[in-house]
Amino acid sequence: MPSRKFADGEVVMGRWPGSVLYYEVQVTSYDDVAHLYTVKYKDGTELALKESDIRSQSSFKHRKSQSSSSSPSRRSSSRSRSRSRSPGRPAKGRRRSASQSREHKDDKKKIIQETSLALAVLVLFKPSENNTKRYNGEPESTEKNDTSCIILEQKLKPDLEVKRVLEQYSLRSRKDDKKTEEIFSEKKTFVAVKPIEKVPSKKKELEFGGRIGTFMLVFLLPATVFYLLLMCKQDDPSLLNFPPLPALESLWEWRVFGVFLLWFFLQAIFYLLPIGKVVEGLPLSSGRKLQYRINGVYAFILTAAAIGALLYFQFELHYLYDHFMQFAVSAAAFSLALSIYLYVRSLKAPEEELAPGGNSGYFIYDFFTGHELNPRIGNFDLKYFCELRPGLIGWVVINLAMLLAEMKIHSLSMPSLSMILVNSFQLLYVVDALWNEEAILTTMDITHDGFGFMLAFGDLVWVPFVYSLQAYYLVGHPTTITWPVAVAITVLNCVGYYIFRSANSQKNNFRRNPADPKLANLKFIPTATGKGLLVTGWWGFVRHPNYLGDIIMALAWSLPCGFNHILPYFYVIYFICLLVHREARDEHHCKQKYGLAWERYCQRVPYRIFPYVY
């Protein structure tokens, strides 16, 4: 294992990701597993850099003191060069003649040329988006509602970089330069001996309770799913009435497992069809962008046609309800096998393809969170496919099967009003997700989390079999609601959906094109990464307005089930816990990514999800 080159607390020059610019940073820690240095910029931004992206300060200062003899505006590095060739330097011992005033005028011209040259170089080489120094100014100058303000500030603000370029392209005499270098070397010596506070090294932070927590979740998540499904089958699904455990042989049927495999590979075929546009995802740590085919809506339409054909040929879709537990066991077994495959193949993956959060070096933790960020078989992206296709579309199919099962079991000519509301609300949610499929490329699941047991089990088991809990509950526990109550629940769901969709659209449009004239009324806080943090609109109301809309919709999905039991409300309770935990993770990542800009944003928008509450 190669030894580390830079020590904790050492001040070095770090390259800003995606650029050729280096800034002064301080090393805070080193990851022995990933071989990455965690460095802190002056504005508080923390990033992980490779050793090849870090250089010592001495190398930069040494280059600064040198100059190229090929440039007429720089100091000559050759002492043997004739001084008489330099128009701004009289020969040694020669006194000024009577033409001093004329030379003084020439000096003024040279100063003007010097300034013009320096400003030209500054315009060409001054960074616009990756300059962390410009965000360390006064707070009132950091909030903007027009990107032209940023460009104007870059062109007109005479900061320290002007002085640096003026010194670099100076036309002064060597004698003056020598004095400047002596003064600079004295300052450099003073800075070098100045003690730097040692930052203690920190281990890689583990989420979900670390190794013990993830080990328990591997067993707790499947147990929770099976417990909820068994409870829904009981006549009295109260929490104190624990369901009897079924026989193990009744939980498995190869025919059911075959049907699940058929469903999974049918969605894979729809995903591979050459229909729909191809878009690029966000840049990876290496700067490369992966391509994704956006055809989720087409897959949904083809699935609806296939289900319609099965119903036309009188296929009993309530077979899904009769074998619901066996389908859940089959999906869990498949997700476990998929997780093992993902972990094994990730052991051979290059280091730059590993997930930031799933590269801890601990087997159970990496197995749960996902070791590889974007596992692909050719152009087939396994994580992206599982995120929306088999589980999300399967959720709608399960709801439809529950609707048909309710009609058959209770001999109804049409489904109950409660079942219609649950199916309609959740159908709208799924169609919206597929219609805005491209937006998922910017979510934490795609950009940060690896593909392991957590996402595999969540996408293939938790989403279709837990999110459909209300419809499954209504089959065995019919609930009658009046039309005024149904209208009130519908209004609540529409309010939640409006907040959810408008907030996400506002964020996605701003990320895609901040200079869009339609967004000119939005104010934002610029950050060192070049992105802005919205402080008006929904994102100035709370920090995660999309989560607020999600929770309101989750409540609307549970209300049609009545208030006889708390079981149908498991989804909204779980969802609040999930989004609060995800919000905490997001806060942690944003604080590291945006530094002081995120702290200013939190001061401007103090509430996280629930206004005036949390």
UniProtKB/TrEMBL annotation:
Compositionally skewed regions (Basic and acidic residues) per UniProt: 101-110
Gene Ontology cellular component terms for the protein in this record: endoplasmic reticulum membrane; nuclear inner membrane
SMART domains in UniProt: TUDOR
Stretches that traverse the bilayer: 212-231, 251-273, 294-313, 325-344, 455-475, 481-500, 521-542, 562-581
Enzyme Commission (EC) number: 1.3.1.70
One GO MF term attached to the UniProt entry: Delta14-sterol reductase activity
Pathway annotation: Steroid biosynthesis; cholesterol biosynthesis
Biased composition range(s): Low complexity: 66-75
Membrane topology note: Multi-pass membrane protein
Keyword presence, Oxidoreductase: yes
EC category: oxidoreductase
GO BP annotations listed: cholesterol biosynthetic process
Pfam families for this protein: ERG4_ERG24, LBR_tudor
Gene3D superfamilies cross-referenced by the UniProt entry: 1.20.120.1630, 2.30.30.140
Residue span, Tudor domain: 4-62
Reactions mediated catalytically: 4,4-dimethyl-5alpha-cholesta-8,24-dien-3beta-ol + NADP(+) = 4,4-dimethyl-5alpha-cholesta-8,14,24-trien-3beta-ol + NADPH + H(+); 5alpha-cholest-8,14-dien-3beta-ol + NADPH + H(+) = 5alpha-cholest-8-en-3beta-ol + NADP(+); 4,4-dimethyl-8,14-cholestadien-3beta-ol + NADPH + H(+) = 4,4-dimethyl-5alpha-cholest-8-en-3beta-ol + NADP(+)
Family: Belongs to the ERG4/ERG24 family.
Protein name: Delta(14)-sterol reductase LBR
Organism name: Falcunculus frontatus
